């Protein structure tokens, strides 16, 4: 079972305060700065498709891939919320970003290539082993055109070490359900990993029934030098490493950092 399947139907409610529009505009600016000829985007770990829909609305052809079938079911419904012209620029496929390969329409023996590859909302930090991380980078490399860019955000190691994660409680509701989510982290400093143990309660407001689920998300916090090493191994170059959405230089209080890597 994919990690998000259990609560895919509550996902958009849990993150309703996330600034998807601002993030899509930020990614658009990064693309226009570093690869202004971009027309096609491969999104690794597209989730429910919010970023993909907004980028397609901005004019890009977007192919989204995710491991979770339930997430992709919600992503496919995004096409019903946009014009037929925008929907025609969206494609969603199920696959593991460490292994997925899109073949060229011209040849089944060639990989389809894109002007940009993106992986947002800390998807790269879900690659918890060196093998997984390298495989994700290889997927990006294989599908990038020469001069293309790989854009992703991560949990930034110096900040996680300086300001470790703490227990957090989130409560949200809509007209039909009320969700309470407790996140309890366990840090493994020698592995650069954090287990985020989620305990979620979903109350049906029509009858008072409560559904309970538990799930552990293991996250890897990353450091620039190790990403430089992986990039150089694949003949990729880091051209930008800054705070997500603000563009400030990252520091000890910067949990969210983005990187732009050029092929």
TrEMBL record:
Keyword set includes Methyltransferase: yes
Methyltransferase domain ranges (all copies): 41-148
Pfam families found in the cross-reference section: Methyltransf_25 (PF13649)
InterPro entries from the UniProt entry: Methyltransf_25, SAM-dependent_MTases_sf
Gene Ontology biological-process entries: methylation
Keywords from the named record: Methyltransferase, S-adenosyl-L-methionine, Transferase, Ubiquinone
Presence of keyword Methyltransferase: yes
Name of the protein this chain belongs to: Methylase involved in ubiquinone/menaquinone biosynthesis
Originating organism: Chamaesiphon minutus (strain ATCC 27169 / PCC 6605)
Higher taxonomy: Bacteria, Bacillati, Cyanobacteriota, Cyanophyceae, Gomontiellales
């Amino acid at each position: 079972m994919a990690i998000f399947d259990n609560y895919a139907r509550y996902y958009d409610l849990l993150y309703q305060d996330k600034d998807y529009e601002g993030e899509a505009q930020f990614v658009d600016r990064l693309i226009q700065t570093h690869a202004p000829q971009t027309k096609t985007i491969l999104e690794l770990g597209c989730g429910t498709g919010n970023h993909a829909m907004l980028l397609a609305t901005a004019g890009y052809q977007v192919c989204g891939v995710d491991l979770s079938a339930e997430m992709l079911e919600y992503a496919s419904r995004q096409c019903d919320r946009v014009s037929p012209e925008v929907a025609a620029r969206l494609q969603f496929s199920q696959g593991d970003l460490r292994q997925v390969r899109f073949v060229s329409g011209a040849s089944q023996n060639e990989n389809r290539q894109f002007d940009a590859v993106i992986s947002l909302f800390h998807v790269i930090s879900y690659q918890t082993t060196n093998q997984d991380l390298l495989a994700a980078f290889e997927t990006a490399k294989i599908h990038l055109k020469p001069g293309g860019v790989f854009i992703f955000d991560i949990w930034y190691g110096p900040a996680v070490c300086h300001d470790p994660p703490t227990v957090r409680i989130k409560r949200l509701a809509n007209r039909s359900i009320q969700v309470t989510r407790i996140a309890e982290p366990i840090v493994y400093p020698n592995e650069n990993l954090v287990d985020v143990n989620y305990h979620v309660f979903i109350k049906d407001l029509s009858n008072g029934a409560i559904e309970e689920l538990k799930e552990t998300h293991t996250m890897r916090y990353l450091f620039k030098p190790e990403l430089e090493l992986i990039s150089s191994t694949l003949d990729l170059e880091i051209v930008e490493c800054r705070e997500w959405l603000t563009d400030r230089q990252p520091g000890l209080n910067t949990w969210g950092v983005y990187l732009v890597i050029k092929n």
